[in-house]
Amino acid sequence: MIILATILSGMSLLMGLLFPIKFKVINIVFMARLLIVALAPIWAIIGLVGAVLGWVYGAPWAVAIGIIGAGMEIWYLWQCTRGHQGLEKAFGADWRGKIPAEQARNMVRRRWSFFLRMKASPEPSLERDIVFWTVPETDRELLCDIWRPASGNVSGLAVVYIHGGGWVAMDKDFLTRPFFRHLVAQGHTVMDLSYRLCPEVDIYGMVGDIKHALAWMKANAPRYGVNPEKIVLCGSSAGAHLALLAGYTPGNPKLTPEELISTDLSVCGVVSYYGPTDLVAGYEPWRRSNPYINLDSVPIGTRLDPSDSMQYAGRLELVLGGNPQDKPDVYQLVNPTTHVHPGSPPTLLIQGDKDILVALDTTNALYTKLVESGVLAIKVVFPWTDHMFDLILPQINPAAQSALYDVDRFLALLVNKG
Q1: pTM for the complete prediction?
Q2: pLDDT tens readout for residues 212-224
Q3: What is the model's pLDDT at position 363?
Q4: Max Cα–Cα distance, the chain, nearest Å
Q5: Residue that terminates a domain, selected from 23, 48, 81
Q6: Helix intervals (H) in 283-382
Q7: Are residue 37 and residue 93 in the same domain, yes or no?
Q8: Concatenated DSSP letters of 168-204
Q9: Between the CA of residue 150 and those of 203, 236, 327, 366, what are the distances in Å?
Q10: 70 and 205 housed in the same domain
Q11: Are residues 222 and 168 in the same domain?
């Protein structure tokens, strides 16, 4: 038993020591750390069991090691779930009373639960591979999936979701089904996009695809029971950057396809999971994130095989046509912070302070500018938490669940906001 106590306590401490580390390159160790941090409650239990066994069987070292390890993991759990004043500051001290009881019933009840149940009941309707726009020059069909709530349980709000992947990788329907089911259970409709990636298009083409999706959703709002004035853009990583950029520039002629200039592309809110907000500051981190191949020689307009999407990591030189020294005006144009103004939509910013790709200082700068401009904004920061945290075991992950708590209430308050 002494050996078992030592092993359990040592495992807890070893896992806990990985929590404060900030990686510089996305690799297998980084991915392992994401999983380890998501399992913080399990490691805490293991450490406490080791400490108890050490106490019972006379192994004081196991007691000390187990308590230190479990203490680190319990601290992380507490920090992620202790709450904040963001909702009060943004919506007023009486924000809870602004959410109808029927809608609140399907939200997460607390910031963390052991093995959270994330399933819509009754089962939502899923319409796959709907064409939302056909590119005129190539007849390329852009597809989306529509998640619809059960009949009679419609909030009127639609969430247009934009996946991440460094502007060059991934696709719709990747590890997001639990999140979508949860949103649909609250009556929201979800539009999950598959937009064109680089090098098939550059940043202008991507933003244009997002705006075509918005135009489609507004035009089809009656079909899905959606209020066209209640559409929220939501995304993670590069998808969050595109969501912020599209949400803040509905009529900007440089970032809007010519055929949509006269179309209402406004949204009632934006939710950003660790979205880049300053691509000059993010230039080097995004370059470092590419462990596979060099895309500098791949010309714009090349269509990549989607099955190879995981081979491509973010390359801002290709996405934006050069480096910050060569293209300073372009980098400035595509920074969401550049476009903040008093009429910008309410924004929820969610990030970990150990993010490998998005510096917390840049997110803080966007939040400050939003508040100074009089825009309703909420910033949620989780300690010892990295990029992509929300996609890893959300049923137990403290940061993922706590973020979901804020997203639930942010969307509900937007539904009922005048």
Answers
A1: 0.93
A2: 999 999 999 999 9
A3: 97
A4: 76
A5: 81
A6: 283-288, 316-320, 328-333, 360-372
A7: no
A8: TS--SSSS-HHHHHHHHHTT-EEEEEE---TTTS-HH
A9: 36, 26, 48, 37
A10: no
A11: yes
Regarding whether 97 and 48 lie in a shared domain, the answer is no
Label residue 319 by pLDDT band (50, 70, 90).
Answer: confident
Position of tokens 């093995």?
115
Is there a single domain that holds both residue 102 and residue 181? yes
Rounded Cα gap, residues 253 and 261, in angstroms: 7
Q: Pick the last residue of a domain from 65, 81, 97.
A: 81
**β-strands 140-148, 125-135: how paired?**
antiparallel
Residue type, 232: V
101 and 63 share a domain? no
For residues 210 and 246, the answer to whether their CB atoms sit within 8 Å is yes
CATH number at 296 reads: 3.40.50.1820
Residue-level pLDDT at 314: 43
**288 and 148 in a common domain:** yes
Name, in order, each residue with C-beta under 8 angstroms of 153's C-beta and a sequence gap of 6 or more.
187
Q: What is the domain count for the chain?
A: 2
Determine the residue type at 108: V
Given a contact cutoff of 8 angstroms between Cβ atoms, the answer to whether 38 and 393 are in contact is: yes
Q: Which domain holds residue 151?
A: 86-415
For 313, the 3-state DSSP assignment is coil
Tokens encoding 60: 């004081």
Ordered DSSP codes for 246-281: HHH-TT-TTSS-GGGTTS----SEEEEES--S-TTT
H or E stretch covering 126? strand 125-135
